[in-house]
Amino acid sequence: MKIQTSKRKSGAFTLIEIMVVVIILGILAATIIPQFMGTTRDAKVSKAKADIAELQSCLERFYINLDRYPTAEEGLNALMTAPPGDESKWRGPYLTKLQPDPWEHEYLYRYPGVHNATRYDLWSKGDGQDVGKGAVEIGNW
Fold it and tell me: Is residue 28 a part of any domain in this protein?
């Protein structure tokens, strides 16, 4: 009597083959992902610098029309609504909407400035960490 063995070839992968592929993908991810981690931070810093440059342009247009910069109390809102008493000289709005910085904080304004004594200071606290602990602070100085 002859015993017949059927030789069926399965088209599926074995568990070992799948594990090897997952391990290889893990190694590739571990070597590639850290290269892109700093990219997000750099993009946020670049965006904040561009925003500050745009705000400076708005502040300079305000200065040309009113012959002064907004006071610390008026702040950057003076770029969107006329300060009381200066409605006749105000030619705004110089800015339609004040966007938060890339870290979702407000841009800070101080007049007269500490870093720019004859002008104003305009800056972002960046990621909000304390200075000296990896803080990112972007300003017009």
Answer: no
